Amino acid sequence: MDRLTLRFWVKSAKMGDWRQLLELSLKLKSLQYLGKSVRSRVSDTGSMANKNLQLDQFHHALPQNAVVFHLTDGVYTSFQSLSDYIPPPVAPPAKANNTRTLPTASFDALLRLAKLDDSIQDALATRNKIAADLEALLEATNEALTERDKVAEAEDRQKTIEYAKKTVEKQLEKARRQQEEKRQFLRTRRELMARDLEDRNGKGEEMQKAQPELLSLGDEDGVRKKAIQNQRRRICEDLQTCYPIQPLPNKSLAFTIRGLHLPNSEGLDAEPPDIIAAAFGHVAHVLLMLSLYLSQPLPYPVTPRSSTSTIEDPISLLKTNSSTTQSYKDERALRTYPLFSKGVPRFRFEYGIFLLNKNIQILLESAFSVRVLDIRQTLPNLKYLLYVATAGEGELPARKAGGIRGLMKGKAEGTTPDMRRMGSEDSASSAISGLLWHGGGPQQGNGKAKGAVDSLKRSMAGLDRGGKKGA
């Protein structure tokens, strides 16, 4: 093509939008040759208004807004198009600091750009062709790809099924073992039941023959239980006589034990410490005897020693400082609390009184199922315990003659009087030591009590046999 239309747009700092400065419609054949090269010429003042272009063969100044074409063979312009063009009024051009002239693209550059564009278009066409070929190839192999995906899915599903199969097999094997164990257990149980049924059938006649004897033994057991209860009532009556608990006149819940007034746990300072210690010694001795007679071991064992009695706590241990702990030689001494207030820390004395009151409460609740309302009332609760222990129907049995000395009647006849006396004294001392409970836990005390009772029973049985033989 030989026709060309040029439009130039300008925008200065004072303009709000772009404005068309020049529009040329020309033919390339009508261009005017100016020369081989062009150079800038600046006046002596150095202003942009006096800056012109100077050619090798054209020595006239070009007008404003002249368009110069730099071609491969030289510089061209179009005077005909400039003669009829009247530029629109614009603001005066601003002064520019850059004096360098920037030419437009040359023919070679445009040719290279055209070749580059052709190459780009060829590359795009090649890419589109390759994409189309790939799409066609994918369409052709779609079925094969789908089948390959299905094969992978089938393999994964097969692995899952195999894992589930192994899990179910393990569960089935475990269930079979459990079933076999249960069958074996049922067979053993059936054998035991059959053996027991045979034993019952074989011993049925013996049981029928022994039924009257069992009835008589049951009656005898009831009579013995009643006799034991009556003996306990008698012993508790004797114990109440030995340690009388009497109320003080005109005072509520104020009692004395053997004439010694013992206030409740909150008013221990109302009496001298010696009287309080002696009264607590009597209470400790009464509790020890009651625990033996009633076959109810005390959870907190007591050691009655008159006004220097103590009580032990084998269950818990009070938290004390290091100086208090070091003053005791071992843990048992640290667990032993005094029932007297002289020469001991006050808190240990009060804790010992608390343990003594807990013993009374536990005896009432375990032996007679009686609820204690206030454990601080030591003597009232002990009086009530003796009252419940002595309650019953019928008259109290009489004390058997002989006492502890009568336990020696079953010995051999060759024993001399001195030996009998010595033996009776040893028997008495052993019986008393067996009945007294010094320290140890509840289980140890219970074993000693049972041993003492069994020893007394054997001695009484020997006394009975000796009496029958003498008769």
Structure, described:
The chain is mainly alpha-helical and 471 residues long. It folds into 4 domains: 3-104, no CATH class; 110-140; 243-389, Autophagy protein 6/Beclin 1 (Actin-binding Protein, T-fimbrin, domain 1, Orthogonal Bundle); 406-470, no CATH class. Helix content is 54%, strand content 11%. The chain is built from 10 helices and 13 strands. The chain has helices at 79-83, 107-140, 142-242, 273-293, 322-326, 331-335, 346-368, 378-389, 417-435, 442-470; strands spanning 3-10, 19-27, 32-35, 38-41, 52-55, 68-71, 74-77, 245-247, 255-257, 260-261, 302-303, 310-312, 336-338. The strands form 5 sheets. Strands 3-7-6 form a 3-stranded antiparallel β-sheet, with no helix packed on it. Helix 7 runs parallel beside helix 8. The model is unreliable at 41-52, 81-85, 410-453 and 459-471 (pLDDT under 50).
Secondary-structure topology with pairs:
Layout (H helix, E strand, L loop, with lengths): L2 E8 L8 E9 L4 E4 L2 E4 L10 E4 L12 E4 L2 E4 L1 H5 L23 H34 L1 H101 L2 E3 L7 E3 L2 E2 L11 H21 L8 E2 L6 E3 L9 H5 L4 H5 E3 L7 H23 L9 H12 L27 H19 L6 H29 L1
Antiparallel strand pairs: 1-2, 3-7, 4-5, 6-7, 8-9, 9-10, 11-12, 12-13
Helix pairs in contact: 3-4, 4-7, 7-8
CATH first level of the largest domain: Mainly Alpha
How many strands appear in the DSSP assignment? Answer: 13
Count of discrete alpha- or pi-helical segments spanning 4 or more residues = 10
Q: What structural category characterises the helix and strand content?
A: mainly alpha
- Overall number of domains: 4
What fraction, in percent, of the residue positions are helical? 40-55%
What string, H for helix and E for strand, traces the elements in order? EEEEEEEHHHEEEHEEHHEHHHH
Which CATH architecture of the largest domain would you pick? Orthogonal Bundle
What is the strand arrangement across the widest sheet? 3-7-6
**What is the rounded distance between the termini?**
166 Å
CATH topology of the largest domain: Actin-binding Protein, T-fimbrin, domain 1
Q: How much beta, percentage-wise?
A: 5-15%
Q: CATH superfamily name of the largest domain? A: Autophagy protein 6/Beclin 1
Overall mean pLDDT stands at 77
> Describe the biggest sheet?
3 strands, antiparallel
Low-confidence parts: 41-52, 81-85, 410-453, 459-471
What general outline do the C-alpha atoms trace?
elongated
**Measured on Cα atoms, how large is the radius of gyration?**
64 Å
